[in-house]
Amino acid sequence: MPSHPDPLAPLRPLGAVLTPDLVQATYRVITPLAAALDPAVTRATWDIAYGPHPRNRLDLYRPAGGEPAETLVLFVHGGGFAGGDKGGEGKPFFANIGQWAATEGFAAVAMTYRILPDAKWPSGAQDVAAAIAHVMDNAEALFGTSPRIVLAGASAGAINVADYLAGHAGPVHEAVAGAVLMSGLYDFTRHDRRTFEDAYFGEDPAQFAAHSTLAALASCPLPLMFTVAELDPPHFQRQAAHLVEAWMAENGAWPHLHYMPGHNHISPAPLIGSAVDTLGPVMARFVREVVAED
Length: 294
What we know:
8 strands; alpha/beta; Rossmann fold; eight-stranded mixed β-sheet
């Protein structure tokens, strides 16, 4: 019997160098595969303001049945501090995460945040803190209860989540039970800065250690899950290796690190909930374990 073609196979010839062409080509491959929002399963509320900036907006997804949502996955998109978006009505990404969450019985928030030129470190972490504060201050109206939160961030979103967990926006909210960090950068003392990173963090090498979250993550009291993609750019692959090294030194064991064959830097989060999703089931199991232990 002939084998079914791999729908992710077109990603491999694109390589691993993160360029605008790779990003555009990736979206051409994955958009037809995305999980569609089903109103029979998922109730969506778009563009809730959580702060004063025009990009301080979030989309909220809940199971359509209306039962209280005791678990919330709050997703922070990537975009190199210069782009990216939460999506919105009529857009597949990142409504797919809302659809996945509702299918699993969770609520979800996809948030956006300030980007360049308005953003300056640690504004990303501050926006994460503001979004968490908003949803928890309004929890009864939004969820029917006070949910436990599992944060999830991809690329620059993972950096923002890591900065938040490291305390760069103040104390971590008591509702936060854990986090998933996808293809992030955690050690800027061993990283060649890109231009957009200099614009966000500043160019002073004396501050690179202060911008790094590796030690804070390795000693974080909350459960953490990390991911790295087979076709992530080499500097993201090296960061995953630094993470393993630091985690082993601190904890004497490997981190919860999920490796994704066939995926590149862009593809994992947009394909959560799809027919080719390999990350969503692992995340759902992690979320349930985290909330059960909390």
